[in-house]
Amino acid sequence: MLSRHMKFHKYDALGNDFILIDTREQVFVPDVQIIKNLCDRKIGIGADGVLVVQKHRSSNFKVSIFNADGSNGGFSGNGSRCVADYLLSQVSGEEISFMMGINSIKAWRSGDCIETLIEIVPSVSGEKSINGFQGFFIDIGNPHLIFFDNAIEDFETLAIMAQSAVEGGCNVEHVTALSDKNHTYGMKVYERGVGITKSCGSAVCAITYKLFISETIKTDEKIRITMPGGTLMSWVRSSTEIVLSGTCQRTFGLGLQVFDRP
Questions:
Q1: Cα–Cα distance between 99 and 106 in angstroms, integer?
Q2: Which of 39, 45, 114, 240 is 20 to 30 A away from residue 15, measured at CA?
Q3: How far apart are CA 14 and CA 63, in angstroms?
Q4: What's residue 260's pLDDT?
Q5: Structural domain of residue 222, as residue ranges?
Q6: What is the CATH number of the domain that holds 195?
């Protein structure tokens, strides 16, 4: 059994938790089993995903996100805010930029919040029916199937069914309007490769873009989405740019031996 010493940082973003590993300081090979072991809440550190920070030629940094099952997540809205908090604590400037998957991200602090400006390359596939419920499918760097149907009672079962109905699986959201006047919504989320989580930033981005293209909101019109872990605010800056705003925190950091165990 092989082992390696590794430094890591644990982050929380409204109940969506991540292990952050900076490979500018150390070597880390993110194979599937190692990711699973790290995220396992019994034998590992425990997390919804792993964020890997790397050097990048055309941007300041490159970040990869891996789901708890070891799969590549592509993009993470909450994860991007955690990375931003980590990197901003190391630089003298007020803004940083990095790549996450196909998304270019700029980030800065705004009071207690971290705000990220995310450049998206949206791919809209339109409506998709799962067990009689109509969802809206959109990819903003990772795939989302959004349901606005108030009649949904067993959301988790519906979300699990969607994993086999969509090639490669997808993140699934159930959205309910809480206030039409100030664009406040409630959301439950099932994350691909993880399961039910307390919050999801990329889901908020996907919902924001859906509301924008359906002309429910306009450019720079802010919405609030409340999840079991807390509330995120977002708005569309342009047809390919979304701003995500919310709190996150580093909970602890340690060094440990990581074992390649089955």
A1: 9
A2: 240
A3: 20
A4: 57
A5: 123-243
A6: 3.10.310.10
